[in-house]
Amino acid sequence: MATALKSRGAALVALLLSTAATARAHEHHMDNIPEGDAVSPDPIDSILWIHILIQALAWGILFPTGMVLGIIRSKWHVPVQTTGTVLSIVGYFLGHKHKGRQFASNIHAKFVPTVMLILIAQVSMGIYLKLHLERGIHGKIRKIVVKAHGVVGKLMPIVIWVQFLFGGITALGFCRGDHTGQCLAHFIMGSAFIAYGIILTILLLVGQLWLRRSGRSQEFYDSLVIAAWGCVNTFTEHRWGTAWVKNDLQHTSMGIIWWCAGLVGIWLSRKRDGRPKRNLVPAIVILLTGWGMSAHPQTLPVSTMVHTIFGYTLMAAGLTRIIEISFVLKDRSATLTDGSDPNSFQYLTPFLLYAGGFLFMGATEEQMQVLADAHVTHVSYVLILYSIAFLLFLYVNMLIHLYAVHAWSTSKSDAEAPRTNGMPNGHARPDPRVRDAEEFELEGLISEDEDAEPLESKERQPLTARHL
């Protein structure tokens, strides 16, 4: 069995290596691209559409789902990740066999070798762990591989997101020349808002126990990031020593208020006795940022309206966070101590951050010009972006639910076990939500049989504060 697995794994890795090598050697035809443009006027053909759909399925759905299945040590982890790997290879070759639209040298193609090397590393480590080589030096190597496998697993969603953005930019020929700077600002900041929303969703649904154990309030971490990000924006939004142009002053002033408010938020995140305390500073920063963006001067009317709706969305996110902390939770960290049943109102802030992120990423100069030329109203465009935000919000909640069902459920056998004095077998059992929610980390990306020890015994081992 091990020999067969090893041979199949070696074949898969060899195929991945050849794919990565081809990524560097392949050159697209560019004879139909007009001078000064990044893409040809040809339509996207069916092969390229299939490439997009297959890669979206493999990288956008299967790999993240397989990651969660690995965390819960499901038997479906390996099949799902293997299917995703095979589809990604098929999609890669289709991307080099398409006709129709041609592309100049672009960041999407240049990033492919990096993405494939990361995939090769992840697959190779997964195969090594499945072989269960534990004797001699393999015992030490195995510990390193388990940790490295988890680190690469944590990087994968970020890498996938970046490559998807590169793909969209390349397909439309955007973000070149003078547009590069504002593209970077929109896509980085928009992605940051979405990432913030995802983190808040995770903490809301499965992270409250870790937050309690950390001895810090949510606002401490929020304010720390806000202060750091504000310092970066203060010194990067304007090229110091040159004339102030367009919106430089407004961007820089936003950076200043971020680090000033962030420092206040850090200070207010503890009581006098050192215990964590909630505060409203991060919510106020989001609200003020939204107000500033709603009045951001733009060239095109459609751009002005999209930026206005983006600003209103951020203002709503800040306002709902203030209401949540002050009136729904009344300065508590959660409605219940384990955070297992959040109030329905608490979902609003994360979702509005998702929507705000997509609105900001979709408001670049080139995108607005395309809308203006096509006579698309801002209402239609905003509704489409909100729809995408809903879909991502749904997907993130589904992945967290997949984890939580395993982590917070009591098995049927436990529920039906003989009870003495009201407890199974006469012994008090720890709350499975408390026990398993502490294991929310990517260290378990290996399969369910990575260790010889059965899962049931693993779940009952004492946990340490290092988790999560």
How many domain regions? 2
Number of strands: 2
Please give the radius of gyration in angstroms.
Answer: 25 Å
Low-pLDDT runs of 5+ residues are: 410-468
Share in β-strands: under 5%
Q: Structural class, from helix and strand content?
A: mainly alpha
Distance between the termini: 34 Å
Given the structure, what is the number of helices?
A: 17
Instruction: Compute the average pLDDT.
Output: 83
* Largest sheet: number of strands, sense, barrel closure: 2 strands, antiparallel
Helix content: 55-70%
Side by side, the strands of the main sheet go 1-2
Defining key terms:
468 residues, 2 strands, 2 domains, 17 helices, two-stranded antiparallel ribbon, mainly alpha, disordered C terminus
Describe what this molecule looks like in 3D.
This protein has helices spanning 2-25, 46-71, 77-95, 107-130, 137-172, 180-206, 208-214, 218-236, 248-268, 281-294, 301-328, 348-361, 365-374, 378-407, 412-415, 432-437, 455-459; strands spanning 419-420, 423-424. The chain is an all-alpha fold and 468 residues long. The protein has 2 domains: 2-173; 181-407, no CATH class. The chain is built from 17 helices and 2 strands. The protein starts with a helix and ends in a 9-residue tail after the last helix. The longest helix is centred in the N-terminal third of the chain and has 36 residues, at 137-172. It is globular. Helix 2 runs parallel beside helix 14 (378-407) and helix 10 packs antiparallel against helix 11 (301-328).
